């Protein structure tokens, strides 16, 4: 299926992230989005030549060794209200790839969403996402047998009311990855903030 336009993609994703992980915040945050970049706000994936982008292939697994994530990936689409789906709340929580975004390794921002908590089941698959640091590795395994490896470039915690949709979902000229969950204070029916991890392609293999 053809990916959404940049504008449509950003709008749909923003609607989801304002409503996901237990519902919208009780009230907008009073302050601007707070960036929690580790070791600097900009990053390089190394001194060597950038890896070539990969052909489109659906991601089937996500591994983040630094925070012990090893999860199959669901395919997420659009809900009836045109917001982006989020993974279902289940005891065996899994992350999900938004199928209207590029696949990992293609040029553009590939988007993966996961829960920080899953209701009465406890911790979600992305419970420790905010602990990631610049340079740490995120690996996606693709349906065609390829592997796309990314290096974290930035970690942000932002108020949902200030979610930077264009920055997260806008066009980029290289393969990048976005990992998104909820974070910050729990407001009773949800979390106030979103945690966003930015990563850039650092290696590929077949």
UniProtKB/TrEMBL annotation:
Q: Supply the alphabetized keyword list.
A: Hydrolase
Name the segments for region: Disordered. Answer: 25-52
Q: Amino-acid biosynthesis: present as a keyword of the record?
A: no
Hydrolase in keyword set: yes
Compositional bias of type Low complexity: which residue ranges?
A: 40-50
Which first-to-last residue range defines the signal peptide? none
A single Gene Ontology molecular function, please?
Answer: hydrolase activity
Per its UniProt record, what InterPro entries does this chain match? Sortase (IPR005754), Sortase_dom-sf (IPR023365), Sortase_F (IPR042001), TAT_signal (IPR006311)
Q: Which domain of life is it from?
A: Bacteria
Q: What SUPFAM superfamilies would the database entry show?
A: Sortase
What protein is this chain from? Class F sortase
| Species of the source | Streptomyces shenzhenensis
């Amino acid at each position: 299926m053809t990916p959404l336009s940049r504008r449509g993609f950003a709008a749909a994703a923003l609607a989801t992230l304002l409503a996901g992980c237990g519902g919208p915040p009780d009230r907008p945050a009073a302050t601007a989005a707070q960036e929690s970049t580790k070791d600097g706000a900009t990053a390089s994936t190394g001194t060597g030549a950038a890896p070539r982008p990969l052909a489109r292939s659906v991601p089937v697994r996500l591994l983040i060794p630094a925070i012990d994530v090893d999860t199959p990936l669901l395919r997420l689409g659009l809900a009836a209200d045109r917001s982006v789906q989020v993974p279902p709340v289940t005891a065996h929580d899994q992350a999900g790839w938004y199928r209207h975004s590029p696949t990992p390794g293609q040029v553009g921002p590939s988007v993966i969403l996961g829960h920080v908590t899953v209701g009465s089941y406890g911790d979600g698959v992305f419970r420790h996402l905010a602990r990631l640091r610049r340079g740490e590795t995120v690996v996606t395994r693709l349906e065609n047998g390829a592997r796309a490896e990314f290096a974290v470039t930035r970690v942000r915690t932002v108020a949902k009311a200030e979610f930077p949709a264009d920055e997260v979902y806008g066009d980029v000229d290289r393969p990048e990855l976005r990992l998104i969950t909820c974070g910050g204070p729990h407001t009773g029916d949800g979390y106030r903030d979103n945690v966003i991890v930015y990563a850039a392609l650092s290696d590929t293999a077949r």
